[in-house]
From TrEMBL:
InterPro entries: 4NH2But_aminotransferase_bac, Aminotrans_3, Aminotrans_3_PPA_site, Class-III_PLP-dep_AT, PyrdxlP-dep_Trfase, PyrdxlP-dep_Trfase_major, PyrdxlP-dep_Trfase_small. The gene is gabT. One of its GO terms (molecular function) is 4-aminobutyrate:2-oxoglutarate transaminase activity. Belongs to the class-III pyridoxal-phosphate-dependent aminotransferase family. This is 4-aminobutyrate--2-oxoglutarate transaminase. Transmembrane segments: none annotated.
Length: 426
C-alpha cells in the first residue's frame, strides 16, 4: 500500500466534495506524531482540526474507550441511558462559565450542536431571527451553512439557506474593523433588517476558527451580553474549536467574564470520538418539549467514556496552562521567522494554542497572499509536517497542536516549516 495508490482509489470512490488536504494515508498515531502507510513520520500541527487536545491515543482516553467497548457500545441515550452520559453532563454543567444552573444535551457533530442551539433559542424566545458574524464558521448542514459567514467553498451551490439570518462584521484590529464599528453595525440591523424583538439569538465564536483565528475582545463580548440582556436576545457562544483548554482556559469566553445563554462544544470534548454537546442555562435548555431534541447517536457511550477521560486528563496534566505555554513557544518561533520575512508575514497572533500567521505581499495588510497559504500544507505533507490553512481571505496558516505536544517536537516541526517556506518561495 502506498499513498499515491490510495489517493487514486480515494478519488475514484469518494466524491470530490469531500476533498483531502494531503495524500497522506494514516497507519497509526501517538500524541503529536503520525505515521503513514509508507512508514513516513509526520509531526502533527493540526490535531485533527483542534480535536486531539489530549493528543493521539492518550493512554487514559484509550483505556476508557476500550473498557466501555467491552461493556456495550450503543443503546441510544433516548431509549436506555447510562451513568456516563449523566456524569458527563454534570461535568459540563459545572464547567460552563457563569453561575446560573446549567443543563446539557448530547449530539454527534459540531454542526448539530449549533443547529440545536437555534432550535432551543427559538423554542425559548418564540422568535425567529439569528444574528451571526462575517467570517464565522458553524458547520455544513443547511441551517449552519446559513449561519456560516464565508462563501467559498462551503456555501457554493448549496442554497437557498434558511431565512431570518443576518450577518454583521466581526471586530478585527488587524483588518481595521474596530469594535465600535462592529457594534454599531450590529445595532443597525435592528433598524435596517429586523426588529430586536424578533431576534432569538446572537451567535459568535470567541475566536473565529476557520475564519482565521481572530479573537473578539472581552469588552466586545461584554457589550454583546449587555445588548442581548437589553432586548431579551440569547447569546450563543460557539466553543467548538476554542473549547476544552485550547485557549488557556477550559472555555475561551470565561476570559471575558461573560456567561452565555447557550454554548456549543464538540471537537476536543472526546478526543476524536464523535460527540458534541449544547450546554446552557437550565430554564432555556428545558424550553423544547420532551423528545424534541436528540438523535440516534447523540451521547454515545463510547463518546461519553472518552469525554470523561478527557476532562480528567485536562485537569491532571494541567492542559489549560500547557495551552498557554505551547502558544507562547510557537509565537516565539514564529516572530523569529517573521523577522526574516517582514514583508511576507503580516501578523503573528495567538489565543493560547490557537496560533496563526497571516501572509501578505509587501507587508501590506490589504494585499493578502492566499496562494502561499494554500501551497504550504501540500509542501509540508511531503516533508513530514501536518499543517492547516484557514482565513476569510485564505491567507492564514494556523497551528493547532495537541496541548500535550513535546517542546522538542515543536522545534523540529518549526525547522521543517522554515524549510517548507523557503521551498514555497523558491
Ligand atoms: N463551529 C466551529 C467554530 C467549528 O470550528 C466547527 C468545525 N470546524 C463547527 C462549528 C462544525 O463542527 P463539525 O465539523 O463537527 O460539524
Amino acid at each position: 500500500m502506498n499513498n499515491a495508490d490510495l489517493q487514486q482509489r480515494k478519488e475514484a470512490a469518494i466524491a470530490r466534495g469531500q476533498a483531502n488536504m494531503a495524500p497522506v494515508y494514516v497507519d497509526r498515531a501517538l500524541n503529536s506524531e503520525v505515521w503513514d502507510v509508507e512508514g513516513n513520520r509526520h509531526i502533527d500541527f493540526g490535531a485533527g482540526i483542534a480535536v486531539l487536545n489530549t493528543g493521539h491515543n492518550h493512554p487514559k482516553v484509550k483505556a476508557a474507550v476500550l473498557a466501555q467497548m467491552e461493556r456495550f457500545t450503543h443503546t441510544c441515550v433516548m431509549v436506555n441511558p447510562y451513568e456516563s452520559a449523566v456524569a458527563l453532563a454534570e461535568k459540563l454543567n459545572a464547567a460552563a462559565p457563569g453561575n446560573t444552573p446549567k443543563k446539557s444535551i448530547f449530539v454527534t457533530t459540531g454542526a448539530e450542536a449549533v443547529e440545536n442551539c437555534v432550535k432551543i433559542a427559538r423554542a425559548h424566545t418564540g422568535r425567529p431571527g439569528i444574528i451571526a458574524f462575517n467570517g464565522g464558521y458553524h458547520g455544513r448542514t443547511n441551517m449552519t451553512l446559513g449561519l456560516t459567514g464565508k462563501v467559498a467553498p462551503y456555501k457554493i451551490g448549496f442554497g437557498p439557506f434558511p431565512s431570518d439570518i443576518y450577518h454583521v462584521p466581526y471586530p478585527n484590529d488587524y483588518l481595521g474593523i474596530t469594535e465600535d464599528q462592529a457594534f454599531a453595525d450590529l445595532q443597525m440591523r435592528f433598524t435596517c433588517d429586523i426588529e430586536a424583538s424578533r431576534v432569538a439569538a446572537i451567535l459568535i465564536e470567541p475566536v473565529q476558527g476557520e475564519g482565521g483565528f481572530y479573537k473578539a475582545s472581552s469588552s466586545f463580548l461584554q457589550k454583546l451580553r449587555a445588548l442581548c440582556d437589553e432586548h431579551g436576545i440569547l447569546l450563543i457562544i460557539d466553543e467548538i474549536q476554542s473549547g476544552f483548554g485550547r485557549t488557556g482556559t477550559l472555555f475561551c469566553h470565561e476570559q471575558a467574564g461573560v456567561e452565555a445563554d447557550l454554548m456549543t462544544t464538540a471537537k476536543g470534548i472526546a478526543a476524536g470520538m464523535p460527540l458534541a454537546a449544547v450546554v446552557g442555562k437550565a430554564d432555556i435548555m428545558d424550553a423544547p418539549v420532551p423528545g424534541g431534541l436528540g438523535g440516534t447517536y447523540g451521547g454515545s457511550p463510547v463518546g461519553c467514556a472518552a469525554g470523561l477521560a478527557v476532562f480528567d486528563v485536562i485537569e491532571e496534566e494541567k492542559l489549560c496552562d500547557r495551552a498557554t505555554e505551547v502558544g507562547a513557544y510557537f509565537v516565539k518561533h514564529l516572530t523569529e521567522i517573521q523577522a526574516e520575512y517582514p514583508q511576507l508575514i503580516g501578523d503573528v497572533r495567538n489565543a493560547g494554542a490557537m496560533i496563526a500567521i497571516e501572509f501578505v505581499h509587501d507587508g501590506d495588510v490589504n494585499k493578502p497572499y492566499p496562494e502561499l497559504a494554500k501551497k504550504l500544507p501540500a509542501i509540508a505533507a511531503k516533508h513530514g509536517l501536518i499543517l492547516l490553512a484557514c482565513g476569510i481571505r485564505g491567507n492564514v496558516i494556523r497551528f493547532l497542536p495537541a496541548l500535550t505536544i513535546e517542546m522538542d517536537l515543536i522545534d523540529e516541526g518549526m525547522d521543517i516549516f522554515k524549510a517548507c517556506l523557503k521551498e514555497a518561495l523558491a
